[in-house]
Specification:
The complex is a heterodimer. Chain A is an alpha+beta fold. Chain A is 36% helix and 33% strand. In chain A, the strands form two sheets. In chain A, strands 5, 6, 7, 8 and 9 form a five-stranded antiparallel β-sheet that branches. Chain A has a four-stranded antiparallel β-sheet with strand order 2-3-1-4, with helices on both faces. In chain A, β6 and β7 form a beta hairpin. Chain A is elongated. Chain A starts with a helix and ends with a helix. The N terminus and C terminus of chain A are likely disordered. By secondary structure, chain B is of the alpha/beta class. Chain B has three domains: 188 residues, Thiamin diphosphate (ThDP)-binding fold, Pyr/PP domains (Rossmann fold, 3-Layer(aba) Sandwich), CATH 3.40.50; 154 residues, Rossmann fold; 171 residues, Rossmann fold (3-Layer(aba) Sandwich), CATH 3.40.50. Chain B is built from 25 helices and 20 strands. In chain B, the strands form four sheets. Chain B has a six-stranded parallel β-sheet with strand order 3-2-4-5-7-6, with helices on both faces. The N terminus of chain B is likely disordered. Classes of the chains: A alpha+beta, B alpha/beta. Chains A and B meet through α2 and α3 of A and β6 of B. Bound molecules: thiamine diphosphate (TPP). The site of thiamine diphosphate has 20 residues of chain B, from α19, α21 and α23.
């Protein structure tokens, strides 16, 4: 009973969950390290880290996933935003983003040829073959963590030779993108500037595989 | 503007703008020095070596424009740069060579980073084609210094130099200031390029030095302050860094709010200002600590709620609504939850706030601070400043010194008991008078910082107050004093112990004095070896006259004062306790 009460009292602030941090930056050598040490200094591990170009020419985008409380995430974001070459940082829960991870699976071609069920399983799981050789076949699937994980356990009995999963990429549901923000950014203080994007909000299901 | 443009064709303007002011071939090294001259740099603290030799070669011809001070160790160089920056308000400039020269800067960078001191450090680096080959004196300076710099950059091509140096100065001094390091490979230093002039930087797209002030928050803050019965202002170095001393004074005088300083905020207003109620923190004054947990509105201005100030956070000012004025958005809510965040430069926000707050006096509330001060005087201060023991105390040295400086000197302190005593008791009438290593607590800071402080404020008296331990960490800088003839008064308060650690061992480790008993050389003889006059005293009767002799001496002077061995600094908020649990003994 007492424990329950305690749980009730625990606010969102105390609950750790997955957060997607999106960082818009200039492209400068060393910036990755500058951002990474903000986490490592506090002994926080990355669940996932991806760097890529963004929708704006010469502006880079980091997608970082960590499991932490919102309070910690907010503080981390402010520390990141403080870096000279960082333009803007957003953080979102998984509900607020559309995210994907890609995975590759290498399986013996003989096994697949022998067991038709494997191919069916793969198809059912949205995987497709990217390379088929005599000795092995490489499948690819894209989806949420559970989906790519699921396929591992499915393939394990058939002798999964190699597996790799990419970092997460995430698109913010209610973001207008950075092209418009850039102008606003140069003028205004961050914080009160998120504009609802109805299409993407409604498009939630469309984008889910 | 429009009319002007009409008389000249736009094409012409574009071409004129592109036209180099003075197109000429320069080496990277020369371009660097040109940049420093245009930035208004007058003093450089540095030490040469292989990888920075081309810059030093170019420097040979800049003697009339740039005064290079040869220090005795790069750590001394960077602390001098810090002292210079802290008294002058300008950017301190430091040169060091690659490898060991650069790594010797790290302590100073960390110190400057945590104390928000503007520095531009230039390090030489091996030729670009040797990077990553473990070349002679190659270290990965950029990665070593990343956590302790506001920004750093490696230049491998001379063409980048003007723009990078312009950025470096802009970043170092703007917003919340901090240290910047530019690592220049040797090939870039010797490379000739087409120098197109130097344009100081005032904008970087991705960098917002100051958050936009939101009037809404200023308004909310004013409302809270106007309703407060027991408002309490705590201020830090932000007031000094923002040059907002006058704005700050006007604000507290109109609102009538008792105000206490963090160690780095000391001197922003005179220590004897009627609304200045003392120092915060572990060895701060009694009233400000206790009453932090009694005020109803806590107004924090340009300070960052360091743990030495807050003590135990979950028992810190829980009853109060908190208004936090800070230029660095990352400081808001970092340690203490803010009720109203007033983002922005306090030079802008304070006048806005002053306009909205009601003219008031909080006599009864202010008297509470006075009552606590009286208790502190009775139990601690009186005996510290007017001891009857045969031995001298640190406090009485500071009291005597006040008589001579009248609060007009720059006081540079090292780290330990003497630092706390000096910061508690030194009279400071002017801003930029208290130079100390606050956030990092770097022993060895004071002597080199005092040298730099004097170069940054040549018309002021600079007095370094140092422990026997800390002095032995950077005493080689006596050589810099000797060679430059700079006038720095050095007071070593010798308690024959690493006093602050001994105090903790006495109070918390059952007097198990583990390696805190420290022997010293004959400091006066040592000074004399460097041609610096000095005296050792242990006798109270001699103190006033010897202090006067020191102050009257033209040039540097070293005064060693033998003080009580086992004195403790009180009051004290023991680590892990709330500020209200401050002990008077
Ligand atoms: C570089 C460095 N090493 C160690 C410490 C830990 N420390 C803090 S105060 C202190 C004692 C300082 O002794 P001393 O310089 O004699 O000054 P006192 O406390 O006696 O006034 C020590 C060792 C430090 N602050 N800095």
């Amino acid at each position: 009973m007492a424990e329950e009460l305690n749980l009730l009292k625990m606010s969102n602030q105390d609950i750790k969950e997955e957060f997607n941090i999106t960082v818009y930056t200039e492209n400068q050598i060393g910036l990755l390290n500058r951002i990474a040490i903000i986490f490592t200094r506090r002994k926080i591990n990355f669940d996932s880290l991806n760097t890529s170009p963004s929708e704006v020419d010469r502006i880079h985008r980091f997608n970082i996933v960590i499991t932490e409380t919102e309070d910690v995430v907010r503080k981390l974001c402010r520390q990141i935003e403080k870096q000279v070459e960082v333009l803007k940082v957003y953080y979102h829960t998984n509900e607020d983003v559309i995210w994907q991870e890609m995975a590759l699976y290498k399986v013996s071609t003989d096994v697949i040829a022998e067991k038709v069920s494997v191919e069916r399983l793969l198809r059912e799981n949205g995987a497709r073959a990217v390379v088929i050789r005599k000795d092995y076949t490489v499948f690819e699937t894209t989806g949420h963590r559970e989906e790519t994980d699921n396929l591992i356990s499915i393939l394990q009995p058939y002798g999964l030779i190699e597996f790799v999963r990419s970092a997460r990429v995430a698109i913010i549901k209610d973001s207008e993108g950075f092209n418009a923000k850039l102008r606003e950014f140069e003028r205004l203080e961050p914080g009160e500037d998120v504009i609802e994007n109805e299409f993407l909000n409604d498009g939630d299901k469309v984008f889910t595989m | 503007m429009e009319a002007v443009q009409e008389t000249t064709s736009t094409k012409d303007i574009a071409e004129i703008a592109k036209e180099p002011v003075e197109a000429k071939e320069l080496t990277g090294s020369e371009a660097l020095l040109e940049a420093l001259v245009i930035e208004g740099v007058d003093t450089i603290f540095g030490y040469p070596g292989g990888a920075i030799m081309p810059i030093y070669d170019a420097l040979f011809d800049y003697g009339d424009k740039l005064n290079h001070i040869l220090v005795r160790h790069e750590q001394g160089g960077i602390h001098a740069g810090q002292g210079y920056a802290r008294t002058s308000g300008k950017v301190g400039v430091v040169f060091a060579t690659s490898g060991p020269g650069a790594t010797n800067l790290v302590t100073g960078l960390a110190d400057a980073q945590i104390d928000s001191t503007p520095l531009v450090c230039i390090t030489g680096q091996v030729f670009a084609h040797l990077l990553g080959t473990d070349a002679f004196q190659e270290t990965d300076v950029i990665n070593i210094t990343t956590p302790v710099t506001k920004w750093n950059y490696q230049v491998t091509d001379a063409n980048e130099i003007p723009e990078v140096i312009a950025k470096a100065f802009y970043i170092a001094r703007s917003g919340r200031p901090g240290p910047v390091l530019v690592d220049i490979t040797k090939n870039a230093q010797v490379q000739k390029f087409n120098y197109k002039g130097y344009t100081p930087c005032n904008h970087i797209r991705s960098y917002r030095p100051k958050p936009i002030v939101r009037a809404k928050y200023v308004q909310q803050a004013a409302e809270l302050i106007n309703q407060a019965k027991k408002p309490f202002v705590i201020w830090g170095q932000g007031v000094i860094l923002g040059g907002a001393e006058q704005e700050f004074k006007t604000f507290i005088e109109k609102s009538g709010i008792p105000s206490a300083w963090t160690i780095l905020g000391a001197g922003a207003i005179p220590t004897d200002h009627p609304l200045s109620v003392g120092m915060l923190g572990m060895h701060g004054n009694y009233g400000p600590n206790v009453l932090t947990n009694e005020c109803d509105v806590l107004i924090a201005i340009g300070m960052r709620f360091d743990d030495r100030v807050t003590g135990r956070l979950d028992k810190y000012a829980k009853q109060a609504k908190v208004v936090h004025l800070d230029i660095d958005p990352a400081e808001i809510d970092k340690n203490v939850k803010t009720t109203v965040p007033v983002w922005g430069d306090c030079k802008e926000t304070l006048p806005m706030l002053t306009e909205l707050v009601e003219q008031k006096t909080h006599t009864e509330w202010l008297n509470k601070f006075h009552d606590y001060m009286q208790q502190e005087v009775d139990t601690v201060i009186h005996t510290e400043l007017n001891p009857t023991t045969p031995e001298l105390t640190m406090g009485e040295v500071i009291r005597e010194l006040n008589e001579l400086t009248h609060g007009d000197a720059v006081i540079v302190t090292d780290v330990g008991q003497h630092q706390m005593v000096a910061c508690r008791y030194a009279q400071l009438n002017k801003t930029r008078s208290n130079i100390t290593s606050g956030g990092l607590g770097t022993m060895g800071f004071a002597l080199p910082a005092a040298i730099g402080a004097k170069f940054g404020a040549k018309d002021r008296d600079v007095i370094a107050i140092i422990g026997d331990g800390g002095f032995q960490m950077t005493l080689q800088e006596l050589g810099t004093i000797m060679q430059t003839g700079i006038d720095v008064k050095i007071i070593i308060l010798n308690n024959h112990f690493l006093g602050m650690v001994r105090q903790w061992q006495e109070l918390f480790n059952r007097r198990r004095y583990s390696f805190v008993d420290i022997d010293s050389p004959d400091f006066v003889k040592l000074a004399s070896a460097y041609g610096i006059p000095g005296k050792l005293i242990a006798d109270r009767a001699e103190l006033p006259a010897v202090l006067k002799e020191m102050m009257d001496t033209k040039g540097s002077f070293l005064l060693e004062v033998s003080v009580t061995k086992e004195n403790n600094v009180f009051p004290m908020v023991p680590q892990g306790c709330s500020v209200a649990e401050i002990r008077l003994k």
